[in-house]
Specification:
mainly alpha, 8 helices, about 0% strand, elongated
């Protein structure tokens, strides 16, 4: 299997996670509060939480569709730019849930950013 195929299929991991976490925020707020380490479940019943769930779901669907339609350059750009979302979540949540708990948001940043750079690099070589 070529490097581009492996990288493309690795993009499914954050895509599926985003879809699953978005659905959890929208449909199962108590489970989402445990997953995101937010003690006050009422936070997930507010409109901003619903918007967050829809954001997660939409970005995850974009990633999955780009993988399935083999749009590698667009997928690389989405992954590269999309790495800003968990990084900013890490910075925002660190003040409310603590640095250690918010590390779960920063954890996927190197993978997502790295996949974006790698996919863009490979598409540039192919041109």
């Amino acid at each position: 299997m070529s490097g581009i195929k492996i990288a493309k299929y690795l993009c499914l991991v954050p895509g599926i996670f985003l879809i699953a976490s978005g659905l959890m925020v929208l449909c199962f707020p108590s489970f989402a509060s445990t997953l995101f380490d937010i003690k006050d479940i009422n936070v997930f019943k507010e409109p901003m939480a619903k918007a967050m769930g829809i954001r997660q779901l939409a970005i995850g669907l974009m990633i999955i569709i780009l993988v399935l339609t083999n749009q590698i350059k667009a997928l690389g750009l989405i992954m590269l730019i999309g790495a800003l979302v968990p990084f900013s979540d890490f910075l925002i949540f660190s003040s409310s849930i603590g640095w250690v708990s918010s590390l779960r948001h920063a954890g996927p940043v190197p993978l997502i950013f790295g996949l974006g750079i790698y996919l863009l690099y490979l598409t540039r070589i192919k041109q």
